[in-house]
Design brief:
It holds the Pfam family Amino_oxidase. By secondary structure, this protein is an alpha/beta fold. About 35% of the residues lie in helices and about 25% in strands. Helix 1 (about 15-25) runs parallel beside helix 7 (about 205-215) and helix 9 crosses helix 10.
Length: about 450
Amino acid sequence: MTTENKKAIVIGSGLGGLLTAAQLAKDGWNVDVYERLALIGGRFANIEYNGYQLSTGALHMVPHGTDGPLARMLRALGADFEIVQSTPMATVRMPKNAEETDYKNGYEDISYLDFKKHLTSKNKLMMVLLTLGFKAGIIRPTKVGFKTWYSKYIHDDRIDRCADSFTGWALSTTADEVTTREVFKIFNNVYTYGGPGILKGGCQTVIDELVRILSSYGGTIHTKSEVTKIVVKDGKATGVVVGGKEISADLVISDIGHKEAWEICEIDGVEGESASHVLALSSPVFKEYEDKLAEMKPSAGLKICFASDEQILPDGCSLMLTPYTRRINGLNEVTIADPNLAPPGKHLIMCHQRTALDKLDEIDEEIELGLEDVKDLFPDKNVEILMVQVHHGRWPVNRAFSGTDFGNKTPIPNLIVVGDGAKGEGGIEIEGITFGVRDALKIIKNQ
């Protein structure tokens, strides 16, 4: 598609929307971004609180660090940013006694590379054989749950706990709510790109740079401007309605999710669910899409931010997995990479815990269990709870469980979806969003 005099409208100013908008503007599109909130950045922005740089959702972390897909795309756009790699990639807090099921009788913090020393000789051998088989292509990933798959070969409570800790921290799922195929893709991406790093200045650094780049190419962001309709005429998206005014476009990008975009489609004068339902009844393609939307399940999570007077993790390592807690899956001590994210002499830690969808009615109890975990993890530290955030519903961790995203395309030409409901395979959080943006840009280029 030639971009000369072409107009693109992006709905939502989250990371996916801004990445797409910046690249389209650089490629010559006339780009307008419409954001219903006063805040730009969605769940990837900073919140200043008493000298601490907290966030609207993310952990100031880039899962694949300086050489991952997000960092590569930002450099290609000309963004100015710095990521400090976590070295080692992660530590794991294990009970000192292998028979213990909590940390009350002591613990040891080990590099993730040393985890194998906690396994039996048989399980060490099985893990080596499974890894070699995967790399050689002998073992092929399936859509069965990851824990169900590996349990055919390995039986070890420590592995089960660490698997749940990793997927809970990275994906807000248990190890069996994510498919073996997706986990293998994640591992392959870790081998390819490396492990996590912390953004100096936090999430806001990236958002500010994307806004700058977008503006430098003539793009515009309109805050407090909610898109109430996506206009579909003659079978394709032709624009949006904002503030009662119809604005024409050659391309509409949704950064608000598949479901949310589908619900506000006005198709040949018929609005919302009625319009989508009529289309679903009239075409197998639309019916299949609506069925997928009905099956889409978001992942929920809970974040606890707290401060400490002392550094908690070893120098250089900003990530800890916590497989023996009640709820917390892992934590990031972001001030190891950037002390300016907290007041002088203070340390900022962000914990994440998966929250089951059927537990949202008991969220106060889930919060209390997470707070108890903080006490148990750091009984000898002076800590201050700064903020607790719950991410679910229309503000989830992911709009679809990792591995269940169904891409960027919709049944409506010129309507493309990006963001956390349209991630690429094996993409952890914002890296998955970046994979999805890259896929969307390829689709647009080939139209």
